[in-house]
Design goal:
With 281 residues, this protein is an alpha+beta fold. The protein has five helices and 14 strands. The strands form three sheets. Strands 2-3-5-9-8-7-6 form a seven-stranded mixed β-sheet, with helices on both faces. It has a five-stranded antiparallel β-sheet with strand order 13-12-11-10-14, with no helix packed on it. It has a two-stranded parallel sheet with strand order 1-4. β2 (37-41), α2 and β3 form a beta-alpha-beta unit. α3 (106-122) packs across α4. The relative contact order is 0.15.
Amino acid sequence: MTTSQGSGGPWSDLDRPPLNTSALRRALVRPDSLWTSLDVVTSTGSTNSDLAARADELPEGAVLVAEEQTSGRGRLDRTWTAPARSGLFLSVLLKPAVPVHRWGWLPLLTGVAAATGLAKAAGVDTSLKWPNDVLVSVGGEERKAGGILAERAGADAVVIGLGINVTLREDELPVPAAGSLLLADAVSTDRDTLLRAVLRSLEQWYGDWVRADGDPVASGLQTAYAAGCATLGRRVRAELPGERVLEGEAVALDGDGRLVVATEGGGTEAVGAGDIVHLRT
């Protein structure tokens, strides 16, 4: 998840107005919608932790958005810093009525939904780096503009965190490889518009996936992810648990959402966990 620092009041940066909570609720929380509640907090440690702590008492579809996060968590215990109100920092609570072995597709589904929604609302070309990064193009260079973290919560729930850098300027980037929608020349950086687009896209993709009993082929998810995945067809280095390293070409996604890597020895290996580095050829 994205974290942020140095907030000030909600109108301290006029280029970064606060989200309009009441308007977002009117647009997204409806009787026929997946989204059952939507709350925006000025600051919190981690939206994922906050929702996970209430997973058993809340219904599916709870959305928690923070204008600022102070202790956000990402994969491999990483942090991602950004000024308050410079991005979308949110978590959603899902209780998938599909076989648990298919829940591994949820981070990939969220990536497809985010990329689809942002492409429509921000007018930027997006791609996905397996398994959980959203990439944009800044000056012809791939940059990470967002990340996804899915965690089991309670008896039957998953909390999915999503962080998207929206208005970060070059001098605010936490690392050179980071990017933002602003730097990718987005036609809109209105966070209300972007949040509505992302949550509506997520509702559609999640609904299709659940109706297909979590089947990635029948729901169209596997095809959509592969089509938008910048990792496939690239030489990669997979840094695996236990300090093992695997290099080769990323050739496919298997039925469980794992990345299939063709090694130089002629074999293939499916990677389900680890850090993937795109190698220059």
